[in-house]
Amino acid sequence: MLKNEYTEFQKRVINLYIEHPEVKKLWEIFDRKRLYRRLGAEQDSEEGQLHLFVKGNSRVGKSQMMKKYKKLNKGYEHIKEDGTEIDIVPVAYMNCPAPFTKKGLYNQIIKSLGATKMSGDVETIKDRAYFLLKEQKCEMLIIDELDYLLSSTYVSRKESMELIKGITNETDVCLILVGTHETDKLRKLDQQYKGRFPPRTIPVFQTCDQSFIDLLISIEEQLAIPDYSLELGNADSAFPELLHQLSGGLLGWLTPILREAFAIVGVFEPDFKDFSILNNIDGNVLIQARENVLGEITEEDFDDVTTNKI
């Protein structure tokens, strides 16, 4: 077997993306919302058809889902009649600024569109952000890490949500808000927020059920190890139950634990050229990988993160 095939396997491990079963459903919803927008859905009529409030546990894979969706809907260059070149951004992704401020919010929008952040007063920066959203034909803006609003000391929670609501009032973009279950407090501050941002929960794999086993099977398919199977999704082996226990059913932990396990057995060593080393991946290696990834996390903290608090 040629050495580059081992290198290609290393790349697959590094770029491993574990797709939550909810992902495709969510992406289909996103696609429909963008379609409704293109067909002229009015902001003031059935607002919930344009916007969404996505919530879920930390490490459940929310951010990766959003970044992946943006990547799948790449921007492109458009030349206007006057010869001006414009970068079209169908889907923009941003994190809430930390700490959350008015200028920070609008500058993050500007940054998400590939432009340079501005200095100046709030209104000037806001006008620039809104202009770019229209000029670059942005259909959907994903605002992640909404939890930063909860700890904001510069802007109250209510005022923060009013700023976000203002984006929907003054632009025609679909707005996707993303945060943990705690951020649902923000949505419930006002009846308008409840109607404008209908909630959607990304569930945790609470048990090692068939859906989790199917996920492990899909991981092996993505890794595509030549003439070899790790049996990760073999219900008769100890792997499914152990991986669920070690990761708490959270994809944000499962992915790095698996990647670290491959590293421990030597997949990323310069002389890696034998897939038989994968036979060394066992319970002890997975436990060590978990310790390397999560450090000395206490059981209390582990339970706090993995408990599905709605």
From TrEMBL:
Name of the protein this chain belongs to: AAA family ATPase
Matches recorded under SUPFAM superfamilies:
P-loop containing nucleoside triphosphate hydrolases (SSF52540)
Looking up InterPro entries in the UniProt record yields: P-loop_NTPase, TniB
